[in-house]
User: Fold GAF domain-containing protein from Actinomadura parmotrematis.
Amino acid sequence: MTPTADPEPAATGPAEDLRTLFGESIAVYAALSGPRHVVETANPAFFAAIGEDRARTGVPLAELAPELAGQGFLDLLDGVYRTGEPYTGRDARVVLGTGAQEREVFFDFTYEPRRDAAGDVTGIRVIGVETTQVKHAQRLMAEHRALLEQIVRQAPLADVLDGMARCIEELAPQQVLVSVLLADPDGRHLRHGAAPSLPAFYNEAIDGIATGDGVGSCGTAAHRREPVIVTDIADDPLWADFRHLAEPAGLAACWSTPILARDGTLLGTFAMYHPVPRAPQDADLALARVFTETAALAIERHHIEQAKLAAEADAAAAVEELAKAVRAEQRLRAEAEERATASAELAARVRAAAAAQAAVAHPERCQLGGAAGCAEPAEIKVADSWGDSAWGCGVHVEEALVNVRSVFIASEELGGLAAYLNR
Assistant:
């Protein structure tokens, strides 16, 4: 029996008016009678709420929707029928349906007693407005705000994307599994970003897939730079090379949207998988758009931070290289200063030796040993461009040749040079 085939008696004018007013309304309306709360009449919105397959009248509400029994709503009806006092509930959570059809909804509702001419309660009117979308919108905004705060706080990208995926899976009206893939810098491959509810073997298999036509929903969406909707993976040619992965993963539909930077650069893909073949509704597409933009913001922020860190590392490396060059220059300068000092000292020794040679033409001992002196025989004669000369041992002569540019081996008979070469 359909809801429009069971009007309330014509004598109850106000009830007939209510049925007419609520007939096409999105508000839920039902008229219940007796202590068993038999559904006398109800508008389409009421039956849509409890399930079109249960659109019957003349049946107690407890039999029509037995899942209500454990949630307190039938007890509230009993109380209104017994006391005659109306009851109003706000944002009441109701679980309707069972098994795969089970769903969570929220209602603002009122139970009003129906009375006869004597004022006795004969039944209850149920009037309600579903607030599920409002609740979901509130939760969506709260979760979205939390994600934005994470991005501002520079939370790790993996945490942001994982939280976003879980949020969407909780908010979606029907079961959905979310995946985010990240594009390589060259835009030719997609890497795993987040997919908390997809099987591990599936995530591993698609990690690194190429972008291009026919590479599933995500590879194709990345290549085309536009959303790709696959409503039935089993029959879609885009999934020819990946059906062997989708089937054991329990995936039957996949809608993928490219994640693009503000300049159009590919950042990745955002995908929603479903366990049954299904086409997206407007709400699904809107949800995908909202979170695709959020993912783009998170990924761009991550790239900016990574580039900043790389630049800081390059700058630090450059500073370190400059410091090394400065230290090397300082060492060279110190060594040059040491050589200059040694050169001056040796030149002074040569001059001192030259003065001593005025008395002794060929001394027996080395004259280049400095203040400490040198007991080695004087074998080689050296001179400088100023005409000063001295005799020294092989070690001190070599030191003079290395450190004093103007010093050279000097011997009229070349005996000094032979002694140096044969030392």
